[in-house]
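Show me a record, fold above all:
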Amino acid sequence: MEALSPPRLRAWREELAPEADTLAGSLPIDEPINLMDRYARPLCLSLAAMVTGISRSDAERLCERAQGISAAAAEPYDTVLRGGAKSASAELRGYFPNGPEALRESGFVALSQTMPCILGNAWFALMQYPQQWSLLHREPELTEQAIEELLRYAGLVRILSRSATADIDLNGAFIQRGERVILRIIAANRDPERFSHPNQVDIARRDAGHLTLGAGPHACVAANLIRMAAVAITYPLVQGFASANLARTVEWQGGSGFRSPKSLSVCLTVANRESQIANRKIRT
């Protein structure tokens, strides 16, 4: 928790936000681009290097090995992927000998590989509701609230497994101690008894309590880091562009653990080209 303290998060955001703003300002208008390769992945790799304390050149070199670990997490029942991930983890461990466990090789993989997946899912969901993107463009100060809704609606993790620590009767379903329980996070986040109109994106939603980042003692230790990164990277995108429209069919990756866009080819538009040009001059 000390390694991910509020002062550290603020420092990382202060370093990441200008980089995101500059990169967003360089994105082309009205022509197809792969938003994952041109925007999400470079920023997440930069954040991964920043947080784990390695150089950007080392981060780029280690990225391919990290991809194998992420692929195994996306499809946990694939024994071949699992074997490759084990050897890749051992190799990466040599580059992160010091520092808190969460900020070593597992942190590098999470930020360089998993974080772009989270963003890809969130942005794809937002593009399915263009009026919500328009609202964010007009009121980018709602980005933090919007990220919570997008995590609920399009959170990355689909299932988790746990072992019951005691016998329990759960709404008529008897679970014995030691039995393996599959938790469908994606279904819980769309529970109509918990969320109104759960199958719609509503960035003004007041319903709270999604389980994308866990809850209570099992909450993700890096939840605040994930939220910070998602807001810092998404903010200049929705602020600078009035809409993002798919240019071609989304190519997906992953499996039963999680799925996300491998590529996200979009055309970014602005409401007023003159104001966009002026904004870019101000940035430079």
